[in-house]
């Protein structure tokens, strides 16, 4: 088991206040400014929980997808993954849309897409979102 940690400070109310992701346990990044405005459109150089979820989903999917491809005997040369997480005020996070383009020698388009769907369904971040957030994947095999 691996526990991961983050520490955030917040000043003020929701609409006018702002916060700082002071640190993450690994020390990989921080401090990062966060605000309600960053969540609802005007980023102003600040991040949001949704942006961090997008980064987490894209990286988790990348690892799960590369593992599935390697297990099938077709390890990827390169995967480029993006995630777009949509936040709707009053509703919350509604979707996380993954898009992957991969260079994978020896694989068919059909097998590539099937492995992408499997990775999308089974990566731990997808599992955490399941039942609450619609997740999709668009998979493109590069020539």
Give a quick set of tags describing it.
single chain; 143 residues; alpha+beta; GMP Synthetase, Chain A, domain 3; 2 domains; 3-stranded antiparallel sheet; 3-stranded mixed sheet; 4 helices; 6 strands; 33% strand
Question: Can you give a write-up of this model?
Answer:
The protein is built from four helices and six strands; from the N terminus they run βββααββααβ. It has helices spanning 36-40, 49-71, 109-122, 124-129, and strands at residues 6-11, 18-24, 32-34, 78-88, 92-103, 134-141. With 143 residues, the chain is of the alpha+beta class. A hairpin with a 6-residue loop joins strand 1 and strand 2 (18-24). Helix 2 crosses helix 3. It folds into two domains: 6-40, no CATH class; 49-141, GMP Synthetase, Chain A, domain 3, CATH 3.30.300. Strands 1-2-3 form a three-stranded antiparallel sheet.
Helices, strands, pairings?
Blueprint lengths: L5 E6 L6 E7 L7 E3 L1 H5 L8 H23 L6 E11 L3 E12 L5 H14 L1 H6 L4 E8 L2
Parallel strand pairs: 5-6
Antiparallel strand pairs: 1-2, 2-3, 4-5
Helix pairs in contact: 2-3
User: Gyration radius, to the nearest Å?
Assistant: 17 Å
User: Could you tell me how far the N terminus lies from the C terminus, measured between alpha carbons in angstroms?
Assistant: 39 Å
**In percent, how helical is the residue content?**
25-40%
Our estimate of the beta-strand percent is: 25-35%
- The total strand number stands at 6
- Total separate domains: 2
Mean pLDDT across the residues is 94
The name of the CATH architecture of the largest domain is: 2-Layer Sandwich
- The top level CATH class name of the largest domain: Alpha Beta
Fold-level CATH name of the largest domain: GMP Synthetase, Chain A, domain 3
Uncertain parts: none
